[in-house]
Design brief:
This protein is of the alpha/beta class. The chain has a single domain, classed as P-loop containing nucleotide triphosphate hydrolases (Rossmann fold). It is 31% helix and 27% strand. The chain contains seven helices and ten strands. The strands form two sheets. It has a six-stranded mixed sheet, sandwiched between helices. Strands 2-1-4-5 form a four-stranded antiparallel sheet, with helices on one face. A hairpin with a 2-residue loop joins strand 9 and strand 10. Helix 4 crosses helix 5. It is globular. The two termini are 31 Å apart.
Amino acid sequence: MPPSGEAEPAVLAIADLMVKRREASRPGRRILDRVSFVVEPGAVIAVTGPSGAGKTTLLHAIAGLVPPDAGTVSWGDLDVTALPEAGRDRWRRDSVGLVFQDFQLLAELGVLENILLPMRFDRWRMPRAVIERAETLAARVGLDARGPRAGKLSRGEQQRLALARALMRAPQLILADEPTASLDADNSARVADLLIEATRETGASILLVSHDAGLLAQASRVHRLEAGGLRLDRGLS
């Protein structure tokens, strides 16, 4: 098992989360309006909704990348919203795997080196077991670990590479924003299966934003975000 934290996955609790969009000469518009829900350990929770509803903002606020105007994000006993920036950085590094639409790959590095990037926080010289895990993750998303630089990959290949990198440290929480959006049907199914397998292998929790019906069907619950509010979409749960 990869060198992630030893603690058991915790409950992710979002309480009364509010984020406003500030516009010149206008009152701030609420993108998220008192959003509350819980992600249990090992659960796969999905959020869907119309374009521009604030789904990406929700993930960014939970990850500590966007400071909320009100409310809290808690990971077990840890109040993430109360942490200083350095503390949020450590929490993301130790506990969270991020798969966002801006993949944040290093274009000049190859497949293997991009997957290994999260491990560079701990060491520069990689043990053979860590390299083998990176190679295995590359294969599981259908990539050649010795393949070309990330900048030469298609967008779909980059998306799969970003997922492999997010799983490298066996995070306790995975936040994924449209993880199958740039993929064909076969690779969408591959990525969906890998995300679900990650929860079974490590007990991780997944919170994902998606419109992929196949991926939504595998979620424990599906919520719909619209007009700033979140509701349980029982038709898909």
